[in-house]
Amino acid sequence: MQRVKILTVVLSRNRWKGPFGVHSAVTDWTRPRRVHTSCATFEFHEFDKRSGYDTGFEIADTRIERIRLGLKQLKKEIKLWKKEVKEVLICDPIFDYRPGEVDVYWRFYEESSLDHWIVTSDSDHAEGFSKCELKISNQGYGLFHGNLCSRVPKDGRIQNSGYCNMITKRVSKSFQRDSFLDWSPYTHLNLRLRGDGRSYLINIHVSGQFDIMWNDVFTFVLYTRGGPYWQTTRIPFSKFFFASKGRIQDKQAPLPLYRITNFGITVSDKADGPFQLELDYIGADFDPTHHEETAYEILFDSKCFNFLLSNISTITSFNPIISKQTSPTGVVLQ
């Protein structure tokens, strides 16, 4: 009983100062509490897939406008759903991928073919002075052109500038359901284009479910020839290297062709001036003689390497296929 009295006196005397004034410890302990949640950290987790950039979607201000836009979008989703049901009922998959045949995924021939693409530059986000546009040329092909400027705005925030980009919209099903392009049967990317001699970047996005994988992209350089002649470019998917947020990753991996979300082309070669890239189609083809998964060395972790060194005798004893040839580091080679 004496201990209870002492505890009551101590609690009544101990007072702490909060942001809204002085509160007694007793009232703070006895007041009803809500469900406790852990504090949000802003160091690692990302809440926005676009990192704060404008999505470009039309946002209504009033409730009537929201209802009108919602009904308009509902009609489009129902049409897309009917198309999906029809494809399921027809059930006409591709069983044979013959060499030399190109399956075209994007062809530029009319204005409606440009609806699948989003064109952006650094000036759209107040990060530079580059301008670009995607349109149908006078010859009836897609023309990605503009002016590249690497001049950095003097705002004390931007350090690098000068890029123009064209990217497809996210692959999705009806009612805004995320989907993927499955290019696993193919081995090469196939493009027919006419360039200006610049070097462009081809970006194949494979965005994952978690925030750490939202910016995963596989990239390769597209070299173009200047002049009036068209060129057909075939790039093996094994040549694409793994990057994230513009940085090439140390640990490379094969391109997961079964979960492609976006396809894009970027110009950012620091050569200020006009550019133009004329496109006929973008597709993929199959080469039965190509068996390479990735052209880059996959680095092992240091722990894994030490484990192999410590257990190399056990591995060789259970695997008679491994020869007696050894490398300078002592690792048995096959």
TrEMBL record:
Gene Ontology terms for molecular function: unfolded protein binding
Compartments in which it is found: Mitochondrion
GO BP terms: mitochondrial electron transport, NADH to ubiquinone; mitochondrial respiratory chain complex I assembly
InterPro entries, alphabetized: Galactose-bd-like_sf, NADH-UbQ_OxRdtase-assoc_prot30, NDUFAF1
GO CC annotation: mitochondrion
Recorded superkingdom: Eukaryota
Pfam families: CIA30
Record-annotated NADH:ubiquinone oxidoreductase intermediate-associated protein domain positions: 106-279
Keywords annotated in UniProt: Chaperone, Mitochondrion
Signal sequence extent: none
Family: Belongs to the CIA30 family.
Protein name: Complex I intermediate-associated protein 30, mitochondrial
